[in-house]
Structures are given as C-alpha cells and as structure tokens.
RNA sequence: GGAGAGAUGGCAGAGUGGUCGAAUGCACCGGUCUUGAAAACCGGCAUGGGUUUAUAGCCCAUCUAGGGUUCAAAUCCCUAUCUCUCCGCCA
C-alpha cells in the first residue's frame, strides 16, 4: 500500500509514475472521495467531541446529585446525527481503502520504463552455455529415459501440471533444497524457518496477494467472501514476511533475514497454453525463499546482496545465467525494483526465469504494520521488505538435467551437490 | 470432538458503567551522583488517524475482532477468532 498522505498530496505525480507500469489511477474518483472524506471526517469527529463533552458533564452533574434529565434531552438528537455521519464515513473509508489496497507499488526511479518483458534490461551474464556435439534432449526426455520423471503417474493421481519424481531425480530434487538452505544459513546469514503452508487472508493481504490476486491461489473451504478460509501459499514470501506483521522490531535486531524451503501452490489461472510440457510451470513446486526485513536506508544494498545470494547458488551449481533488471511494465504488484535471474536452458535455446528478487520498500510493511523502533527518535517506523527465490528447486533441477546431460543419456552431478547425493558424480 | 478458563500498552500485570488512554513493575530514553560503570534517586515514555509549515498545539479512535445495550463501555450482553487446562482421539 502506498503512503496515503503522499497519495493525497501528490496525486498527479503518483498517477504519472503508476502509468509507467501500465496502471491507470482513477484520479477523478479518488479526488472526489478524498474531498468528501476530509469534510465528513472533520464534522464526524466534531460531533463525537461534543457528545463526549456532554456525557462527561452528565457524569459530573450526577456526581453532584443534580437533576440530569434536561441534559439527557439535549444529547438525544446529537446521537442520531453522529450515528448517520459515522455510517457514511465508514463506507467512504472502505471505498478509499479498497482503491488503496488495489494500487500497485511505485517503481524506483532507476527502473527502466517499458511495456513488457521485451523491455527488460540485461545487467550481466555469468558462465557460457555449453556446446553439444550430440542431439540434445529436453529435461522431460532426459528424466523419463532414466525413469525419474513420471507425468503419467501425476496425471492419474491428480491432473495436469503436477509431477511425480522418482529415484535419483527425486533425490537430486531433495539434495538441491538441502544445498540451498545450507548455503543461505551457513554462508549468507539467514535464519532457517519451517512455516505453515496454509495461511489466512490477513497474511495474504499483508504481502499483496489479496485482495486482487485471489484467483491465482488455491483456497480451502470455506473460502467465502470474508476470506475466512485458509489458502495454500504461492510462495514462502507470504509466511516469512508476515512473521513481522503487527510487530515492532528492535533496531539492533536488524536486518532480519529468513529462509525457508516450502512447496508453492499456484493455480496459474489464465496461463494455460504456456509451458504446457515439463516441469517449468506447475501447480505445485518447491522453492527456497529468502526474505529480508531491513531499515529503509539499507534496502538498496539489501536488494543487491540478496540477488547476489541467489546468483551464488547458480554459480556453485555451474549453471550459466543472466541477470535482468525488470522494466516498469513487467514488475509484480508489490515491487519497487526487481532483478530476475534467468538460467540457460539448452532445449529452449534461451534463458528462463529461475529467481526473482524484489525490493518492495515499505509497500508490504505498511499493509502489515511491520515496523522497527528507531533508536534516535524512539518512534516506530516502517521496515523495508525484500524477497527473492534462492532458487526455484524444480526449475533448477530442469537446468541441471538439460545443461549437464551426456550423449549416453546420463547427467553429471554438479560438484557442489555431490555431498548431498552420497557422493554420486553421475546419475543415469 | 467434549468440558472449563482466559485475551488490557514493547513485556508482565491491576482495573466490573462516568474525572480511565488506563495503576504498578520491568524494559527503554534523558538527568543527578560516580574517575568510569553499576546501584540508588529524579523525570520522560502507547499506537493509528484528522487538522496543521510543524515529530508544536487541539481533536478523534483504539483495552483480541465484529455487533448490541447506554447520555456514557476496558468494564454489561451476543457472535467470531485465538490461547491455556483437563478428557477423548491421533502421527
């Protein structure tokens, strides 16, 4: 959520910056609601003050043993006026809140203006895609050939966009998550967390999935209008970031850095037709997530650091990738600035997203009231929140199967992963 | 699943209809004392919002949440959520 005061005072400016990301802010409606709110809120509070004063004097008169009947008569119609003013104000505030909660974050000034992914800017590349002297297979062919990827089974059990992994490939999938968690906790200073996979709607509002993107999630019953049903997490960003919802951290505790390995569930409504084949786009996938909660002045550096942590995983696994700075039009709802890491996939002859690292500044923190106490002023201030994949486990598996495949159908295990696979150097 | 108890500020914990945004303690901040620190003592210290140049002042709201009773609710009533205890069940 944007700062309501800023939104109010800099309406035109805000609208312009939001237009860069393809979001049209309804200035006219907002201005009208705001004007009404201002007068109504003042008059309501004035009525409230009057009633409070009179009620108080009734109490005092009673205490002195005076007759309070005339005072009671006076206060009667005041109550009616107050009641109707309150009702109208509440509706108005709800309307304004709905707009505020559905408005995306402002892009940082150094984010390139653009329409879609074609306008993203490449920042750097690491590694060189291998040249193959044999006919390459995609990850499905590699995995199915060694009996480790079974889509027939998952279709029987559940349906499309799920997978069953077996034997060495299942083990590699598990090993990847272990490897990533160990790296982030032992080398990068993150606190490992085990978190619920079902969350309530308050958490989802906090990180920005609700109220706007409910259809991307799987909900449990009863998922009614009030959203009292629990929902499966689309990313561990939701539980990890919400750890600090309605909390005030000590400044000395900062930065807070959490990591977790969780499954992620996405209904991907409307995305049918994209990546139908294979492990790239699933309703359920595992991910190791990194979340940082930092002081505002530290969030620029934190985004670079956090992205570096994700890059480190790819480097240790020796997977070629490139780092992209997303343009205004391609960023997520909550992001002020986002780097995507894209890993090389030989079968597709292109780089594909494997990590997305974002600084949301105070956008999520304001929704969550996630704060810290400023040591100098002794006042609570909003934190800045950042999140990034480190990495998507399924897609990492895909990248290894494809980049490390051999002409005989086997796959070499990256050196960094071998200790997590009982020393195996090759799977076949 | 059954029975009972509870939810108050950063934390602990008083408060059962009016002068209560709320005693007290801890924590925290400032000061006195001290070579320095500790202790002791003195003072300060909730959050959100409105108005405003203002983190000044004034005003409104907030004692889990949502309804209700009342001129007036932390306090009375209803509902929900959560927590704890006991029983049952269970990995």
Describe this structure in words.
With 428 residues, the chain is an alpha+beta fold. It folds into 2 domains: 26-101, Serine-tRNA synthetase, tRNA binding domain (Helix Hairpins), CATH 1.10.287.40; 117-427, BirA Bifunctional Protein, domain 2, CATH 3.30.930.10. It is 40% helix and 19% strand. It is built from 13 helices and 17 strands. The protein has helices at 4-9, 11-19, 27-63, 69-101, 139-145, 151-157, 167-187, 201-207, 237-242, 299-316, 363-368, 393-403, 415-418, and strands spanning 121-126, 149-150, 164-165, 191-192, 198-199, 231-232, 248-250, 256-265, 284-294, 321-325, 337-345, 350-359, 371-373, 380-382, 384-392, 411-412, 426-427. An 8-stranded mixed beta sheet has the order 1-10-11-12-15-9-8-4. A hairpin with a 4-residue loop joins strand 11 (337-345) and strand 12 (350-359). Helix 3 (27-63) packs antiparallel against helix 4, helix 5 packs across helix 12 and helix 7 packs across helix 12 (393-403). The radius of gyration is 27 Å and the shape is elongated. The protein starts with a helix and ends with a strand. It binds one RNA strand of 91 nucleotides through helix 3 and helix 4.
Helix content: 40-55%
* Low confidence ranges: 223-227
Query: From N to C, what is the helix and strand string?
Result: HHHHEHEHEHEEHEHEEEHEEEHEEEHEHE
Rg over alpha carbons: 27 Å
Distance between the termini: 50 Å
CATH architecture of the largest domain: 2-Layer Sandwich
Mean pLDDT across residues = 91
Provide the number of structural domains: 2
Number of strands: 17
CATH class call of the largest domain: Alpha Beta
Main sheet properties: 8 strands, mixed
Proportion in β-strands: 15-25%
Tally of separate helices:
13
Output the CATH topology of the largest domain. BirA Bifunctional Protein, domain 2
Helix/strand-derived category reads alpha+beta
CATH 4th-level superfamily of the largest domain: Bira Bifunctional Protein, Domain 2
Given the C-alpha coordinates, what overall shape results? elongated
Oligomer status: single chain
């Amino acid at each position: 959520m944007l700062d309501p005061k800023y939104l109010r005072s800099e309406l035109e400016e805000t609208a312009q910056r939001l237009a860069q990301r393809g979001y049209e802010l309804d200035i006219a409606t907002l201005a009208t609601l705001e004007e009404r709110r201002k007068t109504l809120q003042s008059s309501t509070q004035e009525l409230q003050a009057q009633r409070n004063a009179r009620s108080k004097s009734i109490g005092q008169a009673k205490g002195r043993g005076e007759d309070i009947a005339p005072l009671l008569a006076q206060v009667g119609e005041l109550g009616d006026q107050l009641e109707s003013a309150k009702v109208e104000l509440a509706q108005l505030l709800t309307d304004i809140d709905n707009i505020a909660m559905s408005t995306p974050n402002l892009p940082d000034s150094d984010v390139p203006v653009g329409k879609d992914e074609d306008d993203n800017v490449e920042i750097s590349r690491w590694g060189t895609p291998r040249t193959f002297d044999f006919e390459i297979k995609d990850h499905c062919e590699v995995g199915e050939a060694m009996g480790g990827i079974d889509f027939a089974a998952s279709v029987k059990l559940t349906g499309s966009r799920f997978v069953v992994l077996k034997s060495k490939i299942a083990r590699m999938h598990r090993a990847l998550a272990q490897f990533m968690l160990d790296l982030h906790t032992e080398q990068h200073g993150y606190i490992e967390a085990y978190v619920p996979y079902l969350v309530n709607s308050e958490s989802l509002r906090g990180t920005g999935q609700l109220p706007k993107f409910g259809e991307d999630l799987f909900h449990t019953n009863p998922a009614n209008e009030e959203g009292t049903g629990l929902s499966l997490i689309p990313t561990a960003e939701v539980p990890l970031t919400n750890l600090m919802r309605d909390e005030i951290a000590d400044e000395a505790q900062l930065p807070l850095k959490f990591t977790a390995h969780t499954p992620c569930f996405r209904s991907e409504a409307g995305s049918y037709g994209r990546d139908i084949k294979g492990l790239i786009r699933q309703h359920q996938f595992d991910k190791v997530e990194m979340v940082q909660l930092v002081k505002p002045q530290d969030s620029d550096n934190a985004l670079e650091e956090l992205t570096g942590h994700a890059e480190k995983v790819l480097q240790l696994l020796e997977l070629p990738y490139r780092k992209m700075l997303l343009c205004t039009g391609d960023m997520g709802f909550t992001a002020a600035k986002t780097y995507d890491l894209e890993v090389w996939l030989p079968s597709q002859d292109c780089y594909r997203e494997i990590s997305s690292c974002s600084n949301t500044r105070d956008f999520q923190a304001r929704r969550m009231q996630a704060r810290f106490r400023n040591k100098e002023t002794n006042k609570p201030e909003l934190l800045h929140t950042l999140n990034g994949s480190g990495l998507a486990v399924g897609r990492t598996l895909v990248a290894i199967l494809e980049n490390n495949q051999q002409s005989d159908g086997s796959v070499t295990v990256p050196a960094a992963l071998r200790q997590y696979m009982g020393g195996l150097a090759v799977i076949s």
